[in-house]
Amino acid sequence: MADSPFFKGIASHSRKLMLEAAQYRTAPAKDTLIQGGAKATHLFLLASGSARYSRVTGHGKELLLRWLVPGDVFGLASLLSNPPAYMGSVQVTEESEIYVWKHDRVCELSRIYPQIVQNALRITLGYLAGYAQRHANLLTQKAEQRLAHSLIHLAHHAGHHHSGVVQVDVTNEQLGNLSDVSMFTATRLLKKWERNGAIAKKRNKILLLSPEKLDLD
């Protein structure tokens, strides 16, 4: 957890005290940690496993916005004295370990360790920059390029390495969501990459074999 951006600039003994002030728990796959629209009452730090951050449209369609990996924090609105609602939902994708701080506790910690407020702002700006880049990619890149970049990003941040091959646990629809392409287009392009040897497909998994064969330019 020392590498988490939430703890940047905070001494190791202070990080230890902050973690001791949190509730440690395990969460099974498909457990919903945050429900979009509910008041932000807790701050979460993902210690192991993975989760997905998404929003539901007015038509009931889930839009995947970000894949969360160990070291990521979410529920940052709980740092505010009168927190607004969570902007999206977070669901665990595999058994995970998390640290959870209640609103009053995290506000107390922010007064003791004001650096975490700066860290939270930096993290939030990082998310905003990512969404801005995603919008720019939608306007300037082809669907194949967006899908390839999303797959490479996921492989780097959330992939599992096995004998020189990187396994990414993601469905066609989820990868399409992250790339702003339809599931039909994502499936068609993944089949193309499978034929040229760039990837291999398993159920809800993609094995990245030869990333240089993807259309990144």
The strand line-up of the biggest sheet is 1-8-3-6
Radius of gyration: 18 Å
Mean pLDDT: 92
Helix content: 25-40%
Distance between the termini: 35 Å
Give the count of structural domains. 2
Helix run count: 6
Strand content: 25-35%
CATH third-level topology of the largest domain: Jelly Rolls
SSE succession: HEEEEEEEEHHHEEHHEE
Folded structure, characterized:
The chain is α+β, with helices and mostly antiparallel strands and 217 residues long. It folds into two domains: 5-138, Jelly Rolls; 141-213, Winged helix-like DNA-binding domain superfamily/Winged helix DNA-binding domain (Arc Repressor Mutant, subunit A, Orthogonal Bundle), CATH 1.10.10.10. The protein is built from six helices and twelve strands. It has helices at 12-20, 103-112, 115-140, 143-158, 172-179, 183-195; strands at 23-27, 32-34, 42-48, 51-56, 62-68, 73-74, 89-92, 96-102, 160-162, 165-168, 199-202, 205-208. A hairpin with a 2-residue loop joins strand 9 and strand 10. The longest helix is centred in the middle third of the chain and has 26 residues, at 115-140. It is globular.
